Amino acid sequence: MSGIQLNGRFLTRAPTGVDRSASELMRAIGELDIAGDVVGDIVLPRGAKLWQEDEEKPMHRGWNLRQAGPAGLTGHLWEQAVLPFAAGRGTLLNFCSTAPLLRRDQAVMIHDAQVWDVPETFSAQFVAAYRALLPMAARISRHVLTVSEFSRRRLEHHRVVPEGKAVVVHNGADHMDRISADKDVLARHGLKPGSYFFALGSLARHKNLKTVIEARRKCGKDFPLLIVAGGGNARVFADTGLELAADEGRYIGRVTDAELKALYQGAIAFVFPSITEGFGLPPVEAMRCSCPVIATTGGAIPEICGDAAILVDPHSAGEWAQAMRRIAGSQDMRAKLISQGRARAGQFTWSEAARRIVNTLGLPLG
């Protein structure tokens, strides 16, 4: 039980964005040549069903899977009561913000400070739990990782992480290269390439979908549609005041990774109006798929997107409308943003993130 020990709790639940990031880091570390040892173990609750276990090439290849604890014990209780003792002698890696409080030889990745910055986005129970757990985990753990300089500063500002302790490890976007685009998704929704703007929708307040809907409305009837994919159906969004008229756009619900790639590739531009983000992976995914990006000036987005996106105040629907009109009317601007975006996205790879983590842990690479 030497080598890296990985907290595998994220593999046993329906994946969120943080869980998907964890799975890509797991894959990338498993593919590294770590000198002198096998990669290590993924420690899981006993009897857990993995959400990726049916893949032909599972992301956990290169790791040993090891179950621990009594059958049926999962979640935070398993993480706190079983994992610190089951993980053995190696450094324990925790990629999803929480970590056992009875172990020092570990690293915890805390993605953002949103339970402090935008608590209204989450349930009161979630906010209370994370506000209690994260600062303790950050102080106890030997290493703290986060995903952007912006997140590092916010975590230090709220005294979640001691100043100077967190190491920034950017996410990657090259997972999009493994995905074959399902181009039929456009026909299924009555779309043609270059006929729509694309957004990923969520009812979370900090995702700020309302601003881009208002911007599309300002652009008038004879303007490309706004297509919104993601959680929630059209009725759910309409009930919260986020209704789209038929000549403005539509909600298409959840999409597969293959459909997502095709929607990126067919869009005039991807629009991302969040008020704050710890990293903001979707704009970088869009860039990787040769899709121009209009993105918020909020959170880490200016740091991550640089000059490869049009950056707009998340609170100004008028500025968003202006940016959408500009890019819809200029093929030269779209071509420039596509070129700059692909170059920018090329700077964010999971292999580089994995190497930075392993170097932080002090493990030699072969």
Please explain how this structure is put together.
The chain is an alpha/beta fold and 366 residues long. The chain folds into two domains: 181 residues, Rossmann fold (3-Layer(aba) Sandwich), CATH 3.40.50.2000; 170 residues, Glycogen Phosphorylase B (Rossmann fold, 3-Layer(aba) Sandwich). Helices cover 37% and strands 16% of the residues. The strands form two sheets. The protein has a seven-stranded parallel sheet. The protein is globular and about 65 Å long. The model has no long low-confidence stretch (mean pLDDT 91).
Offer a concise description of the structure.
With 366 residues, this protein is α/β, with parallel strands linked by helices. The chain is built from 15 helices and 13 strands.
Keywords:
366 residues, alpha/beta, Rossmann fold, 2 domains, 7-stranded parallel beta sheet, 16% strand
Write the layout of secondary structure elements.
Elements: E1 4-7, H1 17-30, E2 40-45, E3 64-68, H2 75-81, H3 83-86, E4 92-94, E5 106-109, H4 114-117, H5 124-140, E6 143-146, H6 149-157, E7 166-168, H7 184-188, E8 196-201, H8 209-218, E9 225-230, H9 234-239, E10 249-253, H10 257-266, E11 269-272, H11 281-288, E12 293-296, H12 301-305, E13 310-312, H13 317-328, H14 331-345, H15 350-360
Parallel strand pairs: 1-2, 1-4, 2-3, 4-5, 5-6, 6-7, 8-9, 8-11, 9-10, 11-12, 12-13
Helix pairs in contact: 1-15, 8-13, 11-14
